[in-house]
């Protein structure tokens, strides 16, 4: 892995596909559909039992892919993510135990925040890259713009309600490095194993943010 910081890595892609996967084997074709269409990055969430195995499989079949573990709520999950081969960890909130575990594991951690107090807590813990979550429900671009004002060095990845119609509104904000999204990797498309449509939507998303 290169020496780029987590924010620089995410900024290379601008769009981070956020995936919940029920059958670990599906990750191979899914990862291929993403990479072949311009997104060599993924966040595999620990919302399902298959997460760790999916990360392991993808790491072995596509070693160059930048793989994140999402919805990491505990130290144990952080350890699982690291052992499976994840390059970074994302959480919906800011849990100090998870933050400390990631520091011990030497894996970048992107906590979820949506208030000034949470931003300050993240900065105090030495974390300058955060996930603004749930982005749209928490006030969207307007809220993020207000939140960014006092915290000039903050790097942000909005996630939650971000889609092809509003992603560029978020990316237009100086402190936004990338956005997490599910529209190109919806559960329905994964369940249908519709890799062609996932590929088409991925290519469309990449073109939209360039």
UniProtKB/TrEMBL annotation:
Q: Which PROSITE patterns match?
A: ALDOLASE_KDPG_KHG_1, ALDOLASE_KDPG_KHG_2
Q: Which CDD domains match?
A: KDPG_aldolase (cd00452)
Q: Which reaction does it catalyse?
A: 2-dehydro-3-deoxy-6-phospho-D-gluconate = D-glyceraldehyde 3-phosphate + pyruvate
Q: Which InterPro entries match?
A: Aldlse_KDPG_KHG, Aldolase_TIM, KDPG/KHG_AS_1, KDPG/KHG_AS_2
Subunit and interaction comment:
Homotrimer.
Q: In which pathway does it act?
A: Carbohydrate acid metabolism; 2-dehydro-3-deoxy-D-gluconate degradation; D-glyceraldehyde 3-phosphate and pyruvate from 2-dehydro-3-deoxy-D-gluconate: step 2/2
Q: Which PANTHER family match?
A: 2-DEHYDRO-3-DEOXY-6-PHOSPHOGALACTONATE ALDOLASE-RELATED, 2-KETO-3-DEOXY-6-PHOSPHOGLUCONATE ALDOLASE
One term of GO molecular function: 2-dehydro-3-deoxy-phosphogluconate aldolase activity
Q: Does RNA-binding count among this protein's keywords?
A: no
Q: What is this protein called?
A: 2-dehydro-3-deoxy-phosphogluconate aldolase
EC number annotated for this UniProt entry:
4.1.2.14
Record keywords, A-Z: Carbohydrate metabolism, Lyase, Schiff base
A matching Pfam family: Aldolase
Q: Which domain of life is it from?
A: Bacteria
Q: What class of enzyme is it?
A: lyase
Homology family: Belongs to the KHG/KDPG aldolase family.
């Amino acid at each position: 892995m290169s020496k780029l910081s987590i924010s620089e890595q995410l900024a290379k892609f601008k769009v981070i596909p956020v995936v919940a996967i029920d059958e670990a084997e599906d990750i191979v074709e899914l990862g291929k559909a993403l990479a072949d269409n311009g997104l060599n990055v993924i966040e595999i969430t620990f919302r399902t039992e298959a997460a760790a195995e999916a990360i392991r499989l993808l790491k072995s079949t596509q070693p160059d892919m930048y793989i994140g573990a999402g919805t990491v709520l505990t130290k144990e999950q952080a350890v699982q993510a690291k052992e499976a081969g994840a390059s970074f960890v994302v959480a919906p909130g800011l849990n100090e135990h998870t933050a400390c575990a990631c520091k011990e594991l030497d894996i970048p951690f992107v906590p979820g925040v949506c208030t000034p107090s949470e931003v300050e807590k993240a900065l105090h813990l030495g974390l300058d890259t955060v996930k603004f979550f749930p982005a749209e429900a928490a006030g969207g671009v307007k809220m993020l713009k207000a939140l960014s004002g006092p915290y000039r060095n903050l790097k942000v990845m909005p996630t939650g309600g971000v889609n092809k119609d509003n992603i560029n509104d978020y990316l237009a904000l100086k402190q936004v490095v990338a956005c997490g999204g599910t529209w190109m990797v919806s559960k329905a498309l994964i369940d249908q194993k519709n890799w062609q449509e996932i590929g088409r939507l991925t290519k469309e998303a990449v073109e939209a943010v360039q």
